[in-house]
Amino acid sequence: MFLALRIIHIMTGVFWAGTVFFMISYLLPSFAAAGPGAGPVQEELMKRKLFQRLPIVAMLAIISGFWMYYLRMQGSSGMPPTRELKVLGAGGLAAVIAILIGFIVVRPAQDKIGAVAQAANALPPGPEKDAKMAEAAALRAKVMMSGRIVATLLGVTVISMAIARYV
């Protein structure tokens, strides 16, 4: 059972963190540089349901991690947690904060960007369209800043998992 949880945790954690690191470091800046030319790629990502599947993958990583943590805590038979368990717990907490930021800040802003961009594209050139475009740009900046925070938290999580047994 523990081995299956570990495989699920590692596979989903690598996918979640790697996807976030790639998106924040390369994909979103490339979309910004490409401007409207990025639209077809964004549409394809939406068709492939990346933004619906990534939170599910993240939840699987968190659930499997906390399940393993629980199983490890049972083995400590009432003794205070070891330094290893404390480091793993800190990494788990960072992952929980990361997913909460994703659900509370990033996801709603991403959804709103799509609606605002569609509304802007439907408008003729002028101040109203410019205002919608400015709103979309502000939302993109919010997603980027929040994404950097999520990536940093996931970096803390990955480092915690990597060093826990050696502390």
Give a short synopsis of this structure.
The chain is an all-alpha fold and 167 residues long. The protein has five helices and no strands.
Could you outline the blueprint of secondary structure elements for this entry?
Elements: H1 2-34, H2 39-47, H3 50-74, H4 83-122, H5 127-163
How would you describe the overall organization of this protein?
By secondary structure, the chain is mainly α. The protein is 86% helix and 0% strand. The chain has one domain. The chain contains five helices and no strands.
Provide the descriptors you would attach to this structure in a database record:
167 residues, 5 helices, single chain
* SSE string: HHHHH
Multimer state: single chain
Sheet with the most strands? none
What is the number of strand segments?
0
Report low-confidence residues grouped into runs of 5 or more.
none
Q: What structural category do the secondary elements indicate?
A: mainly alpha
Q: What distance lies between the first and last C-alpha atoms, to the nearest angstrom?
A: 26 Å
